[in-house]
Structure formats: C-alpha cells, structure tokens
Amino acid sequence: MQKDIIISEEYKNLKAEVAKLKAELAALVLEHDELKYVVCKNIETKYLLELGTFIFKVYEAECEYLRLKRKSELIQANINREEAIDLKRIENILDEELIEYKKKMDAHIAKMNKALERGEKEFMTDDEEKEFKALYYKIVKALHPDLNPKLSANKKILFERAVSAYKNGDIKALKIIEQLIEKNENLKEEDSINILKNTKENLLKALRDVKSSIKNIKESYPYNLREFTDNPTNMEKRKNQLIDTLLQYKTMTKKLNKRIEELLR
Asked: What is the phi-psi region of residue 169: left when phi exceeds 0, alpha when psi lies from -120 to 50, beta otherwise?
C-alpha cells in the first residue's frame, strides 16, 4: 500500500513537471516564431526601406569597378603578350567571372520587393495582435511535434499550415485551424511514469534547442540590424557611409575608364 502511495506521488509530481515544461516550451516556441517571422522581418523591412536603394547602388558600383579592373588587366595581358585585343572575348570572360555579383544583386532586388510588399500591408491593431498570438500559442500547445510526440501525419500538416499562416499574418487561417483542433485537444491518453519521464527528457532537450535557436537569431542577421533601426542617428551614419562608399567607387571607376581608353589607343 505504501508503495502505491509513493508511486502515485511520483506520478503526480511528474505530471505537474511535464505540464509546466509544456507551457514553458509553448511560450518559448511563440517567442522564437515571433522573433523569426515577425520581429526580424519587420527589422529587415524597415532597414531595407530606409537604406536598400543605397545598398543596391553600392553593389552595382562595386560590380562595375571590379569588372573594369579585371577588364584593364585582361587588356594589359594581351598587350604584354603582343596579342590582338578581342574585346568581345574579354566581355564574355567578365560575364562568367562576375556571375556571383549578378546573383548578389538579383537577391537584393528580391529582398527589396519583399520589403516593399510587406511595407504595403496593413498592420494589426493591438487587440488583433493579442488575439493572433493567443491563437498561435493555443495551436502550438495542441499541435507542436515536441509537445505532442504521437501527433498524426494530418495534424503535423495542420501545424505546418499554422506556421505558414503565422508567417503571413493570416489570422483567419489560424481561427480555422483552432476550430479544427478544439474538439480534440483535451483528449489525452493516461501516461505511465516511464512515458512521463521520457516526455520530460524530450521536453528538456526541446527547450535547450529552442533557447539556442533564439540566441542565434538575436546574434544574427537581420536581428543585429536593430542597432540601426532602433537608432535614427546610427541609421543616418550608415546611410552616409554608403554614400561615401558609392562616391569612392565612382571615383575609382572613372580612373579605370580612363586607363582602359589609354590602353586601347
């Protein structure tokens, strides 16, 4: 009899620990996804809308400078070897060698398009944002794989759709998903002590992973742009740095054009 009471207490304590860990993990997942899909996107959008044009112009100027620099080297090599200067061949070589810079500029344009699109969206009111977060928190508790190891394939797909809806700020989709899980979210199997222990270990691991991911987000791009987006003075300094860099490239490009003209005479 005494043994049964001890087991019952252990079971009760484990059940309480697991419930607490689940709540903590759900809150951290919400924080993680808020950082990744909302905060970081807002930071990047603000930064690109303010400075994106200048950044692109610097990329473009850098690419032009490098192209001309390499062109002058190839022409000089022809001259040194006393070969005919084949400008068409040289341009083809340059196209191949600078393909990565072209990709870099295309990627930036794609980011700018997304920033412009996001900037045009209507922002939620405070009440809508609270409702949005509460819905997502509820769905995370019911459908997140780390919190629900026995989740069916269909429910895993449903969770993926919830994450997608959260990324896109689609509150209507979250409401539909909430309705789909509402009837079943409290139907749970009775857990044995061994299962509870295993669940506890899995939850602790998931907590460590999410905390590590949150730390990485806060130390990486675009979260680290907050030093500019949160400080107008820093933003203005960065803008001036980009303008100075652009002017330097233009000066160097002008000299290279003159150098190439001299080589081709």
From this structure: left
